[in-house]
User: Which sequence fits this backbone?
């Protein structure tokens, strides 16, 4: 028996920077090849901010405006803005504050959350709680990342993976015909050192000796750059994605044969293929945009949802399963009926 829905997606939107960085561009600046990148992760190109005068809040603003328009409401109708990001404009105030100002959501309470690539799913579960209590009626949930600002362009194992972008949804109380059917989130801090960025956090700022160790032989400050134990991440990621999908379906009271569309987090094509195989999902029902966009962390799933809705790959009445994992480790899934 399926669970009664509390919250539905009323509008979607996304934004991608104009600049495209191809694998051939990486061949010019580091020891790598297009063939190596495609075989390893399945990426051909990615969207990047590059030299454009943009920050994470700018990307989020464009996506938010598109979602609000798609929902047929006004910015003043927004009660809350939740932004999932690991690349905020600054330590404080929140990135959501700048988006609120940019779109004129004068009646909204706003805040950021940090759950890495699972951030948008975490944000959706938070929003569902607000909707369930009757506290808010229109909530913007945004995943927005400027990950290339953290990319170490001397590290071919990580630099080629990431792209920039933002995806947004407007959520409202469910109408009985569509909505969030099931959800699941989890984390494990024991795995924190597998995927991380020190940034300018208090843990680093307080320890001068640690700061000095993060400066390479050429004097480049690497504190803010992304670090990853790739092989270990892959092993845990596959397991976490499958768990997320199965637990979300359990919560919804359905099985994999009732899923119309699968949207996995876009991090690595081998991971996407593994979860699709586990769930016995045919290729034409699995959304893949990794090859063109790279991994944009918390933005990947809302971008894919909007693209899929607008292209007709998600139709009214479809049941969609999304699953993600990210640094922390965090992981989670949602079952959504559109």
Assistant:
């Amino acid at each position: 028996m399926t669970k009664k829905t509390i919250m539905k997606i009323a509008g979607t939107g996304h934004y991608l920077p104009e600049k495209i960085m191809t694998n051939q561009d990486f061949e010019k600046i580091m020891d790598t090849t297009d063939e190596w990148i495609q075989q390893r992760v399945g990426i051909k190109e990615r969207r990047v901010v590059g030299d454009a005068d943009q920050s994470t809040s700018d990307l989020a603003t464009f996506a938010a405006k598109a979602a609000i328009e798609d929902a047929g409401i006004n910015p003043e109708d927004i009660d809350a803005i939740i932004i999932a990001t690991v690349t905020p404009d600054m330590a404080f105030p929140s990135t959501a504050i700048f988006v609120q100002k940019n779109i004129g959501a004068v009646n909204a309470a706003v805040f950021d959350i940090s759950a890495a690539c699972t951030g948008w799913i975490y944000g959706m579960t938070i929003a569902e709680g607000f909707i369930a209590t009757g506290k808010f009626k229109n909530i913007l949930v945004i995943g927005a990342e400027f990950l290339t600002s953290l990319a170490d362009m001397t590290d071919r194992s990580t630099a080629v993976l990431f792209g920039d972008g933002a995806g947004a949804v407007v959520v409202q109380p469910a109408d009985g015909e569509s909505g969030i059917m099931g959800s699941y989130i989890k984390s494990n801090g024991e795995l924190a050192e597998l995927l991380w960025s020190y940034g300018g956090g208090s843990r680093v700022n307080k320890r001068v000796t640690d700061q000095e160790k993060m400066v390479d032989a050429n004097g480049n400050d690497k504190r803010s750059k992304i670090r990853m134990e790739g092989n270990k991440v892959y092993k845990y990621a596959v397991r976490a994605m499958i768990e997320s999908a199965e637990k979300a379906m359990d919560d919804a009271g359905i099985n994999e044969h009732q899923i119309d569309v699968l949207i996995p987090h876009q991090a690595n094509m081998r991971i996407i293929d593994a979860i699709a195989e586990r769930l016995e999902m045919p290729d034409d029902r699995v959304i893949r945009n990794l090859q063109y966009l790279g991994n944009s962390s918390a933005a990947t799933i809302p971008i894919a949802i909007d693209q899929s809705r607008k292209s007709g790959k998600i139709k009214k009445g479809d049941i969609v399963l999304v699953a993600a994992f990210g640094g922390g480790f965090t992981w989670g899934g949602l079952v959504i009926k559109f």
Observations:
- The chain has twelve helices and 13 strands.
